[in-house]
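Figure 2 data, in text form.
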Amino acid sequence: MSTPTAGGLTDDELAAALRDRAAAGEPHVLVIANKFSARVLAAATASPAAWSDLGVGDIGSAALKMLEAAAKRQQVQWIETSESDVGEVDYAVSGPAIRAVPAQMRAWCKERDKVTGTSGRHGEVDTVTRFEVASLAGWRCQFDGCGEDLRHHFVPGATGNYSYFAHIVASSADGPRGDKMKSPLLANDPSNIMLMCDKCHRLIDRVAPKRYSAAHLNEMRQRNVDEVHRLLNTLRYPAAQMLVIGGNIEGQPFTFDERIAEEAMWLRQLRTGGVRAEWFARNGPHLGASNSDGYWLSLFQLLKNDRPRLAGLLDGTLYGGAPRPPLAVFPVHGTSVLVLSGRLIGDSSSAHIFQFHRDQVGGQRGGQWAWPQAETVPANDKFKVRIHRHANGGETEACLRINLTAAVPASDLPVHLFSAGQHELPTIEVTVDSPSHRVMGHPADLDLFGRAVDQALQKLQDEWRVSKVHLVLIAPVSACCRVGQKMQARHHAEFILYERRPSGTSGARGEFAKTIAISPTEVTLLSTGESLSIS
């Protein structure tokens, strides 16, 4: 007795094998069949010793046509068996074969189709289960590597049976992978059903049922469900918590439209996740003039109140300890507050900083928070790092000038930083060839600027080893935040921040005055010495 062909034969392959054997002088056929699969043998004569295996195969329309023709010549014998694996049946001792006739073979095929579900009937699989299975599969065949799109086969009025709800454990105990106890229990269970195209369904139930065990198909189904879930989730932008660092500046009111900001987030492939914006340092109109007596005292108190809430947002405790989503930061505030905010947010956290484009016309998606559409990609050397005075040995203080929106003359600096045409301290400047409030016009600008700041800080702290940096910053709001982010949380010099006071009644530009100091552990209001822990 020869060994059946491994893997099984499709209908066309079985028909071709029968045709070849008949042409080679082996017209006699023996079929060993259970309820769902058939094993086919051929021989020159109908002698038990002469049979050779073609293999387990799918008797479909092509193979059935060949068998019917042979049956009319009385050359087909048929053995019915209750064995689940027809390939293991010893036909020599399995009992007498009957002489098959076409009607009997067609009846077997019809009953086989019912048992395997390849007749196209949905039977015990109800509408709700079918929808769940198809949805989990993404409306595509779940057989490994197939993925045929089956959506149009579900359209009302579509003709033909192209998609099938294939049972892993057969709905009938007599079917492929059937079980007396499990079959009725799992007949309508979505976890036991796979969406398959006609070809793959035939493969697991009729062509090679032995190869595809219940365990194998369960693993295949779970891989498919996991992969479909992963792929569909790539269509869903990651959720980001909207953080507004906003307040009135020099009497100018600040309004924030969450809907417009959300549109800008969509343009950056982010979504809000339905959570409302959190605010930091939100001052009112009466606290909008930085040269007023109570401005910094009131603002510092506001920072003290907001600091725990921002810390809770950053470490997840604000929402019960759940991992926080990335931040979408919308900054419009005074320079010192923005730098401090960037320092608190940190460079390692996943924060997306948005730039407010003040002269951008409204009406477009994302409004003034969206990047200008016509802006070209900046050159890698757009942001320049210039050393105006190198450090001499032993100097512990230095000056970092950042001039992006305007080219501030060195003569405008306080006299302890610049006097008599000379920089009083080692000084580095980060700038561009043509400073302008439009300097941050492309998403790549912020990254390039961050690299320039890294380069300047590396020179100041790692090479010159200064312990105090006087920071004079004239830059867009996003750049102010990025400077703060570049201050390492546990290791950086003390930064003394300066802001220019408003112009006087004479129109002369206001002088630069110290505001706050940021150390690795605290922020200090320099006018009073009051401090706030940020460690």
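Caption note: Residues 281 and 301 are 9 Å apart (CA to CA).
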